[in-house]
Design a protein that fits this description.
Layout lengths: L2 E7 L2 E7 L5 H8 L18 E4 L2 E4 L12 E3 L12 H8 L9 H14 L5 H7 L10 H11 L2
Parallel strand pairs: 1-5
Antiparallel strand pairs: 1-2, 3-4, 3-5
Length: about 150
């Protein structure tokens, strides 16, 4: 049976009808149209669906929409302020940090979560923060270097 949940997504309250088994990733993409987060593995192994929930990076594919009620959910769409990109989004763009781009939104969300708690991370801390993000192009060095610039 369907239920109704009220989600706080990108600072907006959203009421949505959900099935109990629907993941937050499914609801964000398919019901709310927030397709910035990608779903690749759909089982918590790749990090493409990273979002920030209550200040921490989380995999949206492993969270149920019904358990997300009352939590502050931030997606890649919520980072920019209108046409003004978030500083980490700007860094990724200015440093040509992506090749195919499939991992980019998850990587950015991991970086934002890290830098909001630790604005001057070490190389090791950056590597640890993005360790759950799979980059199909294997361009981790460029991503780590870009995130380190965000703490500069």
């Amino acid at each position: 049976p369907e239920g109704v949940v009220t989600l706080n997504v990108n600072g907006q309250k959203v009421v949505v009808e959900v099935q109990p088994e629907w993941s937050l990733a499914f609801v964000l993409r398919e019901k709310l149209g927030l397709v910035g987060l990608k779903v690749a593995c759909d089982r918590g192994e790749c990090g493409t669906c990273n979002i920030i929930v209550n200040g921490r990076a989380n995999l949206a594919c492993t969270m149920l929409a019904v358990e997300s009620e009352g939590k502050n959910i931030l997606t890649i769409e919520g980072l920019a302020n209108g046409p003004n990109l978030h500083p980490v989004q700007k860094l990724f763009l200015e440093n040509s940090t992506f090749q195919c781009g499939y991992c980019t939104t998850g990587m950015i969300m991991s970086a934002v979560a890290l830098l909001s708690k630790n604005p001057k991370p070490t190389r090791y801390q950056v590597k640890e923060a993005i360790s759950g993000n799979l980059c199909w192009c294997g361009d981790y060095t460029r991503q780590v270097n870009t995130i380190l610039k965000g703490g500069a």
